[in-house]
Write a structure and sequence with these properties.
Blueprint: E1 2-4, E2 14-16, E3 57-62, H1 77-86, E4 91-93, E5 99-101, E6 104-109, E7 115-120, H2 134-145, H3 163-167, E8 178-182, E9 185-189, H4 197-200, H5 211-214, E10 233-239, E11 243-248, E12 262-267, H6 271-279, E13 285-286, H7 293-299, E14 305-318, H8 328-336, H9 340-346, E15 364-365, E16 370-371, H10 372-376, H11 384-393, E17 405-410, H12 413-430, E18 434-439, H13 441-450, E19 455-461, H14 468-471, H15 476-479, H16 488-502, H17 506-523, E20 526-538, E21 542-543, E22 545-547, E23 553-554, E24 559-560
Parallel strand pairs: 3-12, 3-13, 17-18, 17-19
Antiparallel strand pairs: 1-6, 2-22, 4-5, 6-7, 7-9, 8-9, 10-11, 11-12, 13-20, 14-19, 14-20, 15-16, 21-24, 22-23
Length: 561
Amino acid sequence: MKVKKIAGVLLGAVIIGTLAGCGGQKSEKPAESGAAERTTQASGGKEDGTGSEGGKVMTYAMQKEPETLDPTMNNYATSSIVLQNLFTGLMQIGPDGGLINGCAEKYEMSEDGLEYTFTLRDGLKWSDGSPLTAGDFEYAWKRTLARDTASPGAWYLFYLKNGEAYNEGKAAAGDVGVKAEDDKTLKVTLENPTAYFIDLTAVTAYFPVKKDAVEGPEAWTKSADTYVSNGAFRLKEINPQASYVLEKNPEYIDADTVKLDGVNIVFIESAEAALSAYNAGEVDVVDNTIIQTQAQSQYGGSDELKSYDLIGTCYYDFNCEKDYLSDARVRKALAMSLNRDVINQSIVASRPESSYAFVPHGIPYEGSGEDYRTTVGNLFTEDVEAAKALMEEAGYPGGEGYPTLTLITQNDQEKKDVAQAMQAMWKENLGVNVEIVTFEPKVYWDEQTAGSFDICYDGWTGDYPDPSTNLDCFLLQRNETQCRWLNHEAKEYDSMMKEARSLTDNKKRMELFETGEKLLMEEMPILPLYYRNAQLLVKPGCEGVIKTYIGHTIFKYADKQ
């Protein structure tokens, strides 16, 4: 066994309050559930930084209540933020944004890159005071993969030997490449060498869960009384569709480094209401999901508005199962006929960079030290005349004979305004009519999953700094509930991405990613709009709040004056 230093790839976190600047598991996709609009005072934190029971409490405003508090069932951005503060994996994100020890004291990797042996730290405990062991990780990972669990994040663990086979019912639990050799030793075997596997161990899908809690007589995630975690904070209160109250976890392995006594997470659906609460001193930090133009106008250029980049892309799915969207020429015409800069610089509050490919900036082109996106460059251009020609080739000159398309999106103002701008451009440039239908977020994602759309809003933020975290979005198994791109070219793309997963030769991997992404943009089953970035509003005196380029807001290093 070759011993590897525990030094992870830089995850690009920004430490809010001490650093300003730019910096991403998760899918924006079900990043938003349907919390009720709030205009009342946020609970828990006084303006002097003390909570209702004393101590330093930071109040954080998010738009939506998390979809789940069960790491096993998580595949969502909103849930990931909360779970990252309640749990700790084998590795975790440190205060400088790099990977540091979480539950793992050290790990060893075999020469062939297929086996990892993790040694856990002494004194690990659950929030209820009971010991946390390597067996808890084995249980959690196999639970995520179990077919009966129906975890939407099971695919995260397909890197484990026989992980996918077990999920498909083709292998037994004992065949899966994770085994607790004793209470402190976890042996992991992979299907293929995976350069970024250590990064994955900080993702929520790899968090431990406690069997006794999960399999208890009550639904363990529905009450603070039954909820057990192992992170910097533990759950104190659940107030459905209003707030979650987190308190410092005295059993956390690094509890002596946590300065805050608690975090009150309040759900405020309206951007206007969130800004009002911030201005009134009722909240300390406002999440990017509820920062829109008004906040930008009021705080733009100030130290309170923090900006950072994500390794993600906002895009729209075409429903490729529809006959009138099955022709790649039509999809390319729709993509090429938009003026992205007009949309992104006049409507989207964070003023993001327009995207002419799918993989964002901030991901290395392995082996060169260069940025992947900069190295590969743009893969399509905006060209109205060329778009018109493609529509004519497809049999719809000037949009004649082309059916009205249904575009679905969420019902917040920014997304509606973006949809209306796209609608106007398609009408003017191609003669294509589009009907816009909006839904409350939770209903929206159900409609997308059901395929009740021609075009739909979507977004993805990656989990680790490798092109695969973005390009794997369009593997066949995931396309079935997104863009429904399932033709011969999609199968070719799928094969390339899976081959890349099995290679250790970085040059060959990057070549496959380049070729695959070019095919993706030639086929255009999705329409990239912009590379995702985000903003936070942070009160003066609130320091050390971390926003990673994976999109997590982390409070374990924060302080409040």
